[in-house]
Amino acid sequence: MALLNDEPRSATVRTLEPTRALMLSKDDFREVVRSSSGLALRLLEVLSKRIRSADAPMGGLSEQALKDPLTGLLNRRAFHERVAEEANRARRYGDRFSLILMDVDQFKSVNDTLGHDVGDEVLRWMGRVLTEHTRAADSPFRVGGEEFAILAPAAGPEVARAVANRIRTTIAESTPPVESALRITVSGGYVTCPDHGRDADSLYHLADQALFRAKIEGRDRIADPQVQEE
Prior knowledge:
2 domains, five-stranded mixed sheet, Alpha-Beta Plaits, alpha+beta
């Protein structure tokens, strides 16, 4: 590779037994490659294997960087990337999608009274509920602390509200797998692009406002966006 791209060498070879080496100048090496298709093909095979073996661990690191280690859901970074991608796609092709934000009600009291181990188990359980009770096309995220999000492609307001309420009801009627008797509820807010906005930041802001309103109106409920008419 160093001879092909005029860069410093990136690897060293050590022989394990007596070996004869043929030394070629850069020009001679290039001429051999040009005149021998078999050698050129073999070089491509070797380089392909090296590139694949180098990409494999990098791909694993990239995937890990987008996953929340506690819940296994996609994380905040992945969330903002995906929302921006969906917003761009919606502007270019007229697609529709919805964004749902959900927050565990009074989660601080769980950590304060029962400890962070129980709190972590509740969050893991939340991750499983979101994974199991969203549509196949939907993507659940943990965006920070006890806040979660769902990105729902090709979903209008009615579908978004139905998805959010299904999650809310499931959590309210279930019990997390912890030793203490514990009832968990969630509040949520949702928006739809382009119905309520087209920009990723403004959509997130409107969904967050709806979530906040659900909290102050009593928790354990889903609020729709309130958009000012121009």
